[in-house]
């Protein structure tokens, strides 16, 4: 199964679709946070999630101790050239930036601890938003990496992609703070990093203007927070779509997929990541986030990410064919609070939150137009 990769459609941060995507993100998050199935899962996972969140924040406080030690050692090794207070200030400011990545670190562990509830929330809402895609994901096995053994595949992929990118963000934030301490050259630290971060979603001239805003006294802090949130959201977006990508897109095409849709994915994740920054309770937003990813998947499908079964083993392709074949009786939601409820009922529930999704047939993916809930946002 593979995505059909045509000419890359470059997305821009200044596109009029970006505010619509942000609005869709907020609406879908509110809807999923009120969804009875997601609420049940949140109650089940309340204790482990809160315990994990408290542990992560406590770890951040404990980091103040090694920071003091590092500052003292730097003072000794520099023979007094570096003051302990200045080194402590640098490390403390970096710790503040690193703390903004706590949602990423929480997700890092949550995906391992409560992976099954997250997947169930995603698929359950996807059955309401796009039943055809939900069936495809459920009936298609995960795509294995062709060069890795089964028992090592998941860990290697997880470690090399998500963990390494999160650590790179931490190192990058620290490098920026060290660079800023250099005389004269330090003034260029933030504008340069802002340009490097935003150049791929803005034209070079606009990226330069955006970076220059760092020098404006009142605008500078907002620019720094926006860029830091953008970098973190770009990492979290890949993890949020893991349940979709691992079933639908071959490894060879995943990099191009994320590059092609980077703006849409990141704009969708940003407002939800901001919610996750709420101390202690923030990580509880991970379950509604996982569920709201169903709306992001449906949006990407309508933006021209069709699904084809080439490249899959014959058995998996046959399963997909049976899942997306001629329309049969209306699919029903799984047993539980929704036993026997037609999938259309879920669409009505979504409409009450301001969203108007529609089921999309697999044979219409290639010529799909904008979904009705997106058209409703245009007015």
UniProtKB/TrEMBL annotation:
Keywords: Membrane, Transmembrane, Transmembrane helix. The chain crosses the membrane at residues 49-74. Residues 323-345 are annotated as: Disordered. PANTHER family: TRANSMEMBRANE PROTEIN (PTHR38421:SF1), TRANSMEMBRANE PROTEIN USGS (PTHR38421). This is Uncharacterized protein. It comes from Symbiochloris irregularis. The lineage of its organism: Eukaryota, Viridiplantae, Chlorophyta, core chlorophytes, Trebouxiophyceae.
